[in-house]
Amino acid sequence: MAVGNDAVVLRTPRDVISLIDTGRIRPRRPGLVKVVALGSIFVDGWDLSSFGLGTVQITSEFDLQSSGLNFHSLPFISAAILLGAMVGGLLGGYLTDRIGRTKMLLLTLLLMVVATVLCATAPNPELFWLYRFLMGVGVGLDVPVALAFIAEYSAVSNKGRSVTVAQVMSTGAAAAAFFTIIPVHLLGVGDSLWRWAIGLGAVPALVVLVLRFVYSAESPMWAAKYEGLESAARVLRKTYGLKVDVRPEPTSSERDDRTRAGDLLALFRTPYLGRTVLVTVLVVTQAAQWYAISLYTPKILDQLIPGNIILVLVLSGCINLVGVVGALGCVAGTQRFGLRRLALIGYSVAAAVLMVISGAFHLLAAPVAALLIAIFYAAHNFGPGYAGTAMGTLSYPTAIRGIGGGYTQSVTRLGGIVGAYTFPVLLAAQGMQVTIAVIVLAPLIAIATLMINRWDPVGKDVENPETTEPAAPSPATVHH
After folding, report:
1. Which of 29, 168, 394, 447 is spaced 20 to 30 Å from 387 by Cα?
2. What is the pLDDT of residues 31-67, one digit of tens each?
3. Domain extent listing, the chain
4. What are phi and psi of 2, to 5 degrees?
5. Residue 446 phi/psi, 5° resolution?
6. How many angstroms from the chain centroid is the CA of residue 192?
7. Domain spanning 11-248+263-452, CATH class
């Protein structure tokens, strides 16, 4: 491969991967690439917070119980989106590697738009559960392709930072949802507030869908490996504004088939097994603690300040804004400190805060409890929130990056189901203090695992299975 003032010359698929990984080129509109890829993460974050806000009203309208495996059980309803995401994660990861990134970006968000509207208008718990399940399938399909897409547009020196921006999008969406719903409540929608909260999530979803339709282009890395150099060259011309000449070497294959695209079993073979084990523990534990606390934050606050929904909404929004600060810290620190170190710090602070909340729950004044929950949000988003998810994308090469992200999403939702289902059941049986004490087990397990397994993909060239050292420093970026 040669890079000059006039043209980029491509001879093998590895040339395309090296061109991007070394940081020699950048998209003409990098911010737009991130919005197009990660906009669906915003939709997922909005949905999580709006459902958490509406749990009291949903429970009342559909006459839901605090336990049970049926359509009149709040834990069962809460788990619907997570079950759907488990199914969608593996399927989406496989399809992402097999048919490409762009087709999946459009298909998944269309499903999310439709499912969001259906959820907001569901007439009974049975259909509400079904639409939540379909929403989950859309989320599960989308997250692996979104993270793979953004990783394959980023240099090795910036991949971790680019992928962890998703945590900022998710938490920012939650804050936006709480503050947006305040004026809706003041309009007097009454017991339909939960429908408005969920339904308004279709608006940003539709905006992102239009942006994807207009601006998205295939991942040049995936195109080079599975559609040929000419296809990759078209992407580089469109998205990077490059002049590209394709001169394939006569003796070289345009595809590297050492790892079959979408091969799930490859995640459990050398050299990826240790990475997969670490990713599994991290995403299950972070999801268990996050879904248990974030999904029911309005409920926790309502116990502390009963009967004041405006104050609950304002505090919930402010808590999520503090979470955004933690997520920004993650983005800023990923390349410098690595995902493993950020996760250790975040899990440690989260565990300490949960212990304090549990030990002194009945003694805490509402402002102090809200402050502690905000610190938990910041600590979670600083490390645990996206460390495992980012590792699930960054630890694997292009051929299995989609299925790696899909597997990660599936097991993440397993942890979410544990948190979302266990919280209301424990709360009804043992009360808030014991419930939060049980949740502390999640960060403690993660900390022990991180002390044993020291893998961190930040700065490493995972396209070469034998590579365990950081990639070489990035050469100067090509200017256009």
Report:
1. 29
2. 888 888 888 888 888 887 888 778 878 988 999 887 7
3. 11-248+263-452
4. -130, 145
5. -65, -40
6. 29
7. mainly alpha
